[in-house]
Amino acid sequence: MKTCLVLLTKTYPFDKGEEFIEDEVPLLAKAFDRLVIAATSTSDAPEQTRSVPANATILHIPASRIKRALPGAALSYLPFTNCRGYAGPEERAAVKGSLKRRGFLTYFLAKSEAVYRAVAEKLADCNLEQYDGVTFYSYWFYDIALAAVRLRDHCGAKAKRAVSRAHRYDLYADRNATGYLPLRPYLLEHLDRVYPCSANGSNLLKKSYPAYQTKVETAYLGTRDFGLSPEPQGDELHIVSCCHISPVKRVELLAQALSLLEDSGLKLHWTHFGGGDGLDALKAYAKEHLSFMDCQLAGPIQNEALMRYYQQHPADLFVNTSSSEGLPVSIMEACSFGIPAIATDVGGTSEIVQDGKTGFLLPMEFAPNVLAEQIVAFSRLPQEQRQALRADCRKVWEEQFFGERNFTRFAEAIRP
């Protein structure tokens, strides 16, 4: 059976972003005869920053093109009573009385329409009808997932499917400012399968939309195997964090917690990887409040360089202070090196940070002193208990988050 996979992304493999797709793509390419990657929100002149397999074709749609098309696409849904059949009774009830939600739904539909039209135009030259089976795979359970449904329905191949992953912002409606995400019932009905990246996400969808339970299946992401990091020696406690510095990541809470440990007697070393608009403010805070300890705010880093760092430098703890997560790839990476974590119990984080086994969980809302106390408690653990944490981290990663195995299984599962 001759098969083709059409993967819809935001920007991958151009510019920055969606780095966690990089390890999956080679295994997708092995499972299909042809891979078409459609980046649906690029800059006007994007730079390809990631290599792709030999059987991959790359398409890119500038975000500016989609933006220009939005007004016309939105008008195509007039009148907005049922949005051309996309908004059923449950959807209409969800937006009733809320201009923000109704505007969100209209924008969502218009953007999906614009993306669908642009991708369909580009795919016209790919002759998908020559394949016995075609799968349209949306990396996000969002507007491009609706585009995947429409592309499947438009495709003339004999066997065809539309599937989507689901992560965080595209899954947890309560984390959206409107408390709402558009077209959940429609997408679940019309996609062939939805794959949340955590059991927590799967359970949420199944509970919220029980009629579609059989269409929801957990599919963990994963990371590559670079071995264990060096075992920490001496009396220094080395803490590592890695994330884009944004309000949802709340890295300032870690900085504030560390500032409370000035008189703890601990020899502390903190390394943070990741940039963002909050980096300068974090540096200023560290300069004023963390001068008593070794503090390295390294800024953005390429993934390969981060993996080399973990291979070459011992780290005692990884810390994640997010208010919202799917299932953090950054913790998977740390876990693969045998680095236990302290993290907030949000999204699917508890599926990898197993309290007392691979690390320690904090409530979503916590004061800096609570994290400070947890760091002190970790520092007082006997050496054999720290070694057990390291061993369990590696074991859990091997059993559940080994990328090559997870991505190979997923690629087979989504074949038409």
Would you mind describing this structure in some detail?
The protein is of the alpha/beta class. It has two domains: 3-222 and 404-413, Rossmann fold (3-Layer(aba) Sandwich); 236-400, 3-Layer(aba) Sandwich (Rossmann fold), CATH 3.40.50.2000. The protein has 14 helices and twelve strands. It has helices at 25-31, 63-75, 89-95, 99-123, 143-154, 184-190, 199-208, 251-259, 279-289, 303-312, 329-336, 368-379, 383-400, 403-413; strands at 3-9, 34-42, 56-62, 133-138, 159-166, 193-196, 236-242, 267-273, 294-299, 317-320, 341-344, 359-362. A six-stranded parallel sheet has the order 3-2-1-4-5-6. Helix 4 (99-123) packs across helix 5 (143-154), helix 8 runs parallel beside helix 9 (279-289) and helix 8 (251-259) packs across helix 12 (368-379). The longest helix has 25 residues, at 99-123. The mean pLDDT is 96.
Helix/strand/pairing category: alpha/beta
The helix-strand sequence is EHEEHHHEHEHEHEHEHEHEHEEHHH
Taking the sheet with the most strands, its summary is:
6 strands, parallel
Average pLDDT, to the nearest integer? Answer: 96
Intertermini distance: 9 Å
Approximate shape: globular
CATH level 1 name of the largest domain: Alpha Beta
Task: Tell me roughly what share of residues is in helical segments.
Answer: 25-40%
Spatial strand arrangement across the major sheet: 3-2-1-4-5-6
Q: Count the strands? A: 12
Work out the radius of gyration: 23 Å
CATH names the topology of the largest domain as Rossmann fold
Keywords: Glycosyltransferase, Transferase
Domain Glycosyl transferase family: 234-390
InterPro entries: Glyco_trans_1
GO molecular function: glycosyltransferase activity
